[in-house]
Design brief:
globular; two-stranded antiparallel ribbon
Length: about 90
Amino acid sequence: MEEKYCQSCGMPMGETDELYGTQQDGSKSTDYCKYCYEKGTFTSEVTMEEEIEICVPILVEEKVCATAEEARAMMKEFFPSLKRWKQA
């Protein structure tokens, strides 16, 4: 099974819908996590660069990346492919 990622913050969504955000009607969003998307809207209005800076300490704390610089570089490469940040 292909791993799903939040299309805003890039967080792995796991194999259940536990981390899925919600649409306005209360149904699960398959695109965004519960931290980024609630009741059909994003929980914060940020730029891609601001989202990256929010996520940097999390990736370092969770030991996904060894340093903030490594985390930042990885996300700057990955985030433009995510639905929320894709250029139209």
